[in-house]
Amino acid sequence: MRSSYIFLKIGLWRWILSFIFILGAFALLLSIATLSKLYSPTSLIDTDTFRNHLNWEGNGRTGNEATKTTEIIIQKIQEEMRDTAGESSVSRYSAFLTDILGLVESVQASVAENEVKEVHPLSRSNEQQVVTANYFLIEELRKYVKMKPNRLGKQNFMGANGTFTSIGHACFSMKSELEEYMDYDVGDICKDDWKLAQKLMVHGCDPLPRRRCLSRAPKLYNKPFPINESMWKLPDDRNVRWSQYRCKSFACLAGNSTRKGFFKCVDCFNLVDHESPRWTKLVNSNPASNLTSDFLISEVLDIQPGELRIGLDFSVGTGTFAARMREFNVTIVSASINLGAPFNEMIALRGLIPLYLTINQRLPFFDNTLDIVHTTRFLDGWIDFMLLDFVLYDWDRVLRPGGLLWIDSFFCLKEDLEDYLEAFKMLRYKKRKWVIIPKLDKDNREVFFSAILEKPARPF
Question: What's the pTM?
Answer without folding.
Answer: 0.72
